[in-house]
Amino acid sequence: MSTTDEPAETEAEPAPSTQQEPGQKRGIRVLRLRLKGIDRDYEVDFQDKEVGGPKALSVIAGAFSTGKSSVLEFIAYCLGTGSHPQHPEILRKVRSALLEVELSGQPHVIERAVGEPSTAAFVRPGRLGEIETPPMEKRVLKPVGDPQSLSSLLLSYCGLEGVQLREAPKQAESGTDPLSIRDLLWLCFMPNERLDDKNLLFEKSAHMKRFKLRQVVDVVFGVHDDKAVELGRRIKELETRLSRARNEHLTAQNFLDEQELGTRIQLELTRDEAERAFAATIRALSDLDSRVRAASTFATELRARHRDAARRAQRSAALLRDRETQLRRFIPLRAQYADDITKLTMLAEARMLFDPLLVKVCPACLTTLRDAPHIAEGHCTLCTSDVTTQQTDQVEPDNAHNGNAPATHTGSDRAVTEAKFDVSSELRATKNRLTEITQYVGELNAELGNLRTAAEEDDAAEAELARAVDSATNETVSPFLSQRDDLMRQQQAAATNLERARTAIKMLDSLDRRAMAVTRLENALRALRGELDQATVQPDRNDVIHRISDRYAAILLSWRFPKLEQAFIDNNLVPHMRGQSYIHTSSGARTLISLAWILAVFEIAWETGSAHPGFLMIDSPQKNLGQGGDRDAEFADSVAVTDFYKHLHDWLTGPGEGAQILVVDNAPPATADDDIVARFSRRADQPPYGLIEDEVA
User: Fold this and answer.
1) Whole-prediction pTM value?
2) Which residues are within 8 A (CB) of 146 and not within 5 positions of it... i.e. 6 or more apart?
3) With 70 as the cut, is the pLDDT of residue 135 above it?
4) What contacts 32, CB < 8 A, 6 or more positions away?
5) Which is nearest to 217 in space by CA: 191, 183, 194?
6) Cα dist. 149→153, 493, 617, 630 in Å?
7) Residue pLDDT, tens place only, 82-98
8) 175, 180, 202: which is closest to 190 by C-alpha?
């Protein structure tokens, strides 16, 4: 197949810093994914149990909605993408994601938080499950060009650290953006939604994203202009960083030399000895306690009596405190009720002595009146005077001044007034309550004497039994006390030595990390200088595109793509079929074309030793293929899924040996059974149900 004559629209600034031989262990390999939960962990293992290391082909199979795609998304998340799966069961159960990877053959663990905003990742050398692990190193996520970022670390193992992408390649003074691991993952991860939605090259995204994808491909294959200038800039930057790293390493080395900590072997021996001594003192203390208990069994009954006496003393003291508290509260209450009785009595007597409105005797003849004087039909019943006019003249001005209506007082009004000021019932009730309180206070006073006596007797009995226990066991226990003091001193000394040894080992680990950083920078600088020496000989972009295009057509042919003709990839990396862009084909055809495109780029990059990380993740390769549902009928019978897996097996055991491919598939063929690392059933009676195994509802 041949490419079109369209000129390349974009150019990428930098090239990979290393061109390695095909098959050499390099880049990134996925070993294990572990989701750390509240109650348990969830894990998917991609390692070959027989030969060790990562499996060449790993398949995650199972029913829909079981978390298969989430596995690949969590891997991408640990490698630096912005978000993780947001399924409810994941947010309920998972708190962090840990990914064990090989970086140029060296195992590392990357950890990121789940369920909360994540601004950094934590990286350490080693494997999951190790008992003794070095401390985690914090790696920021942004800015991606920071030497201490996760992106810079991962790109350094792909030979792409420090790469800058021009915003406008045809302008010499164009601004630049650093290449990030997220950009590189475009060539390492084919998600489900990118397979058939006409967005393979981010056609539905902003122009700069499509533009950047072509730059990333040029970076990986090392095809661009001004390569020597860019390499010189990167060499100068690395030399500065290397000088700084060497100074930091030397300063740390001098500090440790001044502390005279000794060698790592000596420190590890000291630590092991301190751990043994600490454990021995714990065992000796436990044995000593057992001997003390055994030697003092004769005092068991006496100790039981002492415990009972102590409980009785506590109960007596509590009861005494309760009664004293009640007495302190009731005495003021009694005084308050006595004061209320005095006030009510004075009120009743004052009413009888000083009420000016109560007329019971005629003031003229001193005869007792049958009825209280009142106004009846406008006349006073006492003096028979006509008071209508007088009341109008006197009362209305006053009421007009006060804003009130005139009022007259009748016999019934006076009776109501009398009833309203009757306090005899309230006085009787208050006297009854005072009598009850006085009686209860008297009972409390009488009871307090007995309670104080009982409490003093119980305290004396408890103290007497305590002295009896001490006297009975003193001769037996005393010899063990000095032994216990000696053991406690030994335990403290062992703990101190252990902490010092561990702190010293951590210092040496820090020094080793600085030495590893120096070595990594030296290797990268050496590779860049070697590449600069060979900068006059670089791959031709048209030749690279031609090779990718030929591989693309060959892959489709091996899959028995129907009506295969004029299948090629143009200079802008757009795949074509039957002379037209892939976006004009059916959904099933777009799935196969997208798979062939990503595989062609991956395979040619690996075979030419380009700067690809060396792993590829594919989600749902059977999308829109086969029969039923909304599948593409044109490809239902002609395309065999087994051909897809056969191609992967043939390439991984041939030119692709050493590379890694991870596939998520609902129903892989039987030929892929040996490659399945996890099969989710979505059935509670056939575990595992899904990625979150205990979420089976």
Assistant:
1) 0.62
2) 140, 152
3) yes
4) 43, 44, 45, 46, 47, 99, 100, 128
5) 183
6) 7, 41, 23, 44
7) 899 999 999 999 999 99
8) 202
